[in-house]
Amino acid sequence: MPETHVTVSPERIVHANGVELCVQTFGSAAAAPVLLIAGAASSMLYWQQEFCERLAAGSRFVIRYDHRDTGRSTTDPPGCPSYTAIDLVDDVIGVLDALQLPRAHLVGLSMGGGLAPVAAVQHPERVASLTLIATSPAGPGEGDDLPSMSDRTVAEFEAVPEPDWADRESVIDHLVEQERLCAARSQPFDAAGMRADMARVVDRSPSIRSMFNHFAVGGGESYRKRLGEIAAPTLVLHGDEDPIFPPPHGVALAAEIPNARLITLPGVGHELPRRAWDAVVPAILAHTAGADDR
Question: What structural domains and CATH numbers belong to the chain?
Fold first, then answer.
């Protein structure tokens, strides 16, 4: 039976791979663990508390964490990341180690959906299943067979003015506009709700500009050619209005991972909006049910 009350732990710092990572858990530690991996320039707050609680209410032990350079985790100066993409993959395993979890279901969105398959290739014994949201099989320089962002989308992102990084309201405005450009165009955009979300992100970060270090991170071999090695059951969730990774990216990802299943989310962009939770939460719970996750 699903839990009627969800235990929410305080945030805490764990040590992994020589850095500090901030983690928070929801639900009983005796339940099947589900590790949520956010996208680039996103802290654990991208996975909203109610979303985490809804997963935990389905008898899951849900973990969210701050990537390096976000939230309360170790932060480098803006423009100077001291780590590689593979270090971010190692952090996924490092969180599991810190919580003494032999295996977990990995749920990754955007960049997080790129880190999770690499973890499944490098550490198959640690990954019970994969759920990959709004992401692509292609890493940098290897997606020529897949559609790029439209010229319109590129122009819109380039037109977003640089904020005054010392001014809280200017930074919040900037982040809200970036999220607006990621969202589905056919649906109303909740600017007030997003502004409240971004205010929490800004207030929680000692160096908000550092989160954009993720876009300067390199390193690691190409893993697209190794997706066929993944044995973990895989679910791909992709919005039909994703402007960053247009829908063929989700189709290709599901085709390149053996036995992966694709669910298309109507009226969803490069995002995980509340209106999609009624489809996404049951899909993740069904996908993670019954696996040998311990």
Answer: 12-147+207-287 (3.40.50.1820)
Residue of 205, 242, 249, 293 marked catalytic: 242
Considering the candidates 110, 129, 205, 210, report the single residue annotated as catalytic: 110
Which of 174, 270, 287, 293 does the annotation list as catalytic?
Answer: 270
Strands 32-37 and 104-109, by their bridges, are parallel
- 242 catalytic, yes or no? yes
Q: What whole-number distance in Å separates Cα of residue 273 and Cα of residue 280? A: 10
State the Cα–Cα distance between residues 257 and 229, nearest whole angstrom.
8
Q: Nearest CA to 57 among 287, 294, 282?
A: 282
Instruction: Give CA torsion, residues 115, 121, 124, 126, to 10 deg.
Output: -20
> Any catalytic annotation for residue 144?
no
Q: Please confirm, yes or no, whether 173 is among the known catalytic residues.
A: no
Contact criterion met (CB below 8 Å) for 63 and 24: yes
Cβ(218)–Cβ(211) below 8 Å: no
Residue 85 parent element (H or E): helix 85-98
Look at strands 32-37 and 60-65 and give their pairing: parallel
Give me the pLDDT at residue 291, please.
54
Given a contact cutoff of 8 angstroms between Cβ atoms, the answer to whether 100 and 16 are in contact is no
Name the residue with tokens 């900037």. 174
- Strand pairing category for 261-265 and 12-16: unpaired
Beta strands in 214-269 (DSSP E): 234-239, 261-265
State pLDDT tens for residues 130-187: 999 999 999 877 778 999 999 999 999 999 999 999 999 999 999 999 999 999 999 9
- Predicted TM-score (pTM) above 0.70: yes
Residues 150 and 245: beta-carbon distance below 8 Å: no
Cα separation, 76 vs 67, in Å, equals 12
Burial of 216 (C-beta count, 10 Å sphere; 0-12/13-18/19+): exposed
Measured between alpha carbons, how far is 201 from 196 in angstroms, rounded to an integer? Answer: 9
